[in-house]
């Protein structure tokens, strides 16, 4: 089942869009939104797999809204204007539908999104299966168990690393290179942001200029990692 949002400022167009969504058995409507502000509020609390998005709306347009999302769901643009098609595809939308949309064309776009969704789910299952959910590190004369989901971020300090955890106010310090630690971590869950930092992708709350934020924690992003970070965070699933 794919959870979706419908966003359109015109009531009739939104009604028709919602009716089409309800005719696709693998779609579940999270909420109908009459503007991008409402949609942003929903996405703060709900996880959407797919957004049906109008472009021309008062305030923040659909394309502007899409560019504000750090980790956007799949998007199908539904608009009365063909002129935005190229810009939409440059933002990696799944499909571009021009109103009025025939049900057959709508279902074809949904099937394309479903195929991408199933592929991503399969890739994540394979990736997760290849990595255990924990590992052990040497701390003084002990072996300390580190659970992957407990990691916030990791800082490299020459021959040592600090592992910061959600469950502890003090980091775990162990003798190991950051490169060696990076090889232990599943790439779908962790990302290198800087020569001295690795961050848990699901823990990222925002990106502002040259920093990633995990709550109030600010972690630097080097110029050489910016492009890869943007691509990975756009594909990531928390």
Biggest sheet, in brief? 5 strands, parallel
| Number of helices, counting only DSSP H or I runs of 4 residues or more | 7
Instruction: Based on the coordinates given, report the CATH architecture of the largest domain.
Output: 3-Layer(aba) Sandwich
Strand order of the largest sheet: 2-1-3-4-5
CATH superfamily of the largest domain: Response regulator
* Pattern of helices and strands: EHEHEHEHEHEEEEEHEEEEEH
Total count of domains: 2
Helix content: 25-40%
Report the strand count: 15
The CATH C-level class name of the largest domain? Alpha Beta
Terminal residue distance: 17 Å
Named CATH topology of the largest domain: Rossmann fold
Q: Kindly name the structural category.
A: alpha/beta
Taking pLDDT < 50 over at least 5 consecutive residues as the criterion, the unreliable ranges are: none
Features:
elongated; 5-stranded parallel sheet; 238 residues; 5-stranded antiparallel sheet; OB fold (Dihydrolipoamide Acetyltransferase, E2P); 32% strand; 2 domains
Describe the structure concisely for a colleague.
The chain has 238 residues and is an alpha/beta fold.
Question: Can you tell me about this structure?
Answer:
By secondary structure, the protein is an alpha/beta fold. It has two domains: about 1-130, 3-Layer(aba) Sandwich (Rossmann fold); about 135-235, LytTr DNA-binding domain (OB fold (Dihydrolipoamide Acetyltransferase, E2P), Beta Barrel), CATH 2.40.50. The chain is about 30% helix and about 30% strand. The chain is built from seven helices and 15 strands. It has helices at about 10-20, 35-45, 60-70, 85-90, 105-130, 180-185, 225-235, and strands spanning about 1-5, 25-35, 50-55, 75-80, 95-100, 135-140, 140-145, 150-155, 160-165, 170-175, 190-195, 195-200, 205-210, 210-215, 215-220. The strands form four sheets. Strands 2-1-3-4-5 form a five-stranded parallel beta sheet. Helix 4 links the parallel strand 4 and strand 5 (about 95-100). The longest helix has 27 residues, at about 105-130. It is elongated. The mean pLDDT is about 90.
């Amino acid at each position: 089942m794919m959870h979706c949002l419908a966003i359109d400022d015109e009531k009739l167009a939104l009604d028709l869009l919602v009716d089409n969504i309800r005719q696709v058995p693998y779609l579940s409507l999270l909420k109908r939104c009459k503007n991008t502000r409402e949609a942003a509020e929903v996405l703060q609390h709900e996880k959407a797999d797919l957004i049906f998005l109008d472009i021309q709306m008062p305030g923040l347009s659909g394309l502007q809204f899409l560019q504000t999302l750090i980790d956007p769901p799949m998007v199908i643009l539904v608009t009365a204007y063909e002129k935005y098609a190229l810009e939409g595809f440059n933002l990696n939308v799944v499909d571009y539908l021009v109103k009025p949309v025939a049900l057959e064309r709508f279902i074809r776009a949904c099937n394309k999104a479903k195929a991408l969704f199933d592929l991503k789910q399969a890739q994540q299952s394979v990736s997760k299966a290849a990595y255990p959910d924990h590992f052990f590190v040497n701390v003084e004369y002990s072996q300390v168990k580190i659970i992957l989901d407990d990691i916030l971020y990791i800082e490299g300090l020459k021959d040592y690393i600090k592992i910061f955890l959600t469950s502890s106010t003090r980091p775990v310090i162990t003798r190991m290179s950051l490169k060696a630690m990076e090889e232990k971590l599943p790439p779908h869950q962790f990302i290198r942001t800087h020569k001295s930092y690795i961050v848990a992708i699901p823990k990222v709350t925002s990106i502002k200029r040259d920093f990633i934020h995990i709550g109030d924690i600010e972690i630097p992003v080097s110029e050489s990692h910016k492009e890869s970070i943007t691509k990975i965070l756009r594909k990531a699933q928390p």
